[in-house]
């Protein structure tokens, strides 16, 4: 037996309706992305010019800012007109996701950065890709239940300025 999926007429595709609070959540995410990108740009430069230093100063913060500014819950997983699953991207293009996904691979070459800075860069890449995936998988839950807002708070925490002179146990509580 052969199953043939008939395409739906274009008029039968329901228009996207934003979730309650979506504009505010997306605006908050864009601001958090700009702050995270600014923190990455503020990291110390490599002592000698090298490709990873150039990448950390330009491509990575640009990707973080672009990803957080382009989040789009309408770009979620859905059924295509032929009845097949179309995997969404949460509004973040493949090139930007690729840039974020190589962070763990390139940090070993950024030996002038501290382990704390490495960890924070890993957290930034993870949170940004995680937010996009959450919006692609289940935008309603991610927005209505505050998951995006909580992840933006995590991003802000990961990129907060370290206060010099505070003991680690005090810094941890800030």
Structure description:
The chain is mainly α. About 55% of the residues lie in helices and about 0% in strands. A two-stranded antiparallel sheet has the order 1-2. Strand 1 and strand 2 form a beta hairpin. Helix 1 packs antiparallel against helix 3, helix 1 packs parallel to helix 8 and helix 6 runs antiparallel to helix 8. It starts with about 20 loop residues before the first helix and ends with a helix. The model has no long low-confidence stretch (mean pLDDT about 85).
Structural class by sheet pairing and helices: mainly alpha
Secondary-structure element series: HHHEEHHHHHH
Number of helices: 9
Q: Which outline best applies?
A: globular
* DSSP strand count: 2
* Main pleated sheet: 2 strands, antiparallel
What does the average pLDDT come to?
Answer: 87
Beta-strand content: under 5%
Poorly predicted sequence stretches spanning 5 or more consecutive residues? none
Could you tell me how far the N terminus lies from the C terminus, measured between alpha carbons in angstroms?
64 Å
Helix content: 55-70%
Strand order of the largest sheet: 1-2
Rg to the nearest angstrom? 19 Å
What's a quick, concise take on this entry?
The chain has helices at 22-42, 51-57, 59-69, 94-101, 103-106, 115-137, 139-144, 147-158, 168-173; strands spanning 78-79, 85-86. With 174 residues, the protein is mainly α.
Structural key phrases:
mainly alpha, two-stranded antiparallel sheet, 9 helices, 174 residues, 56% helix, single chain
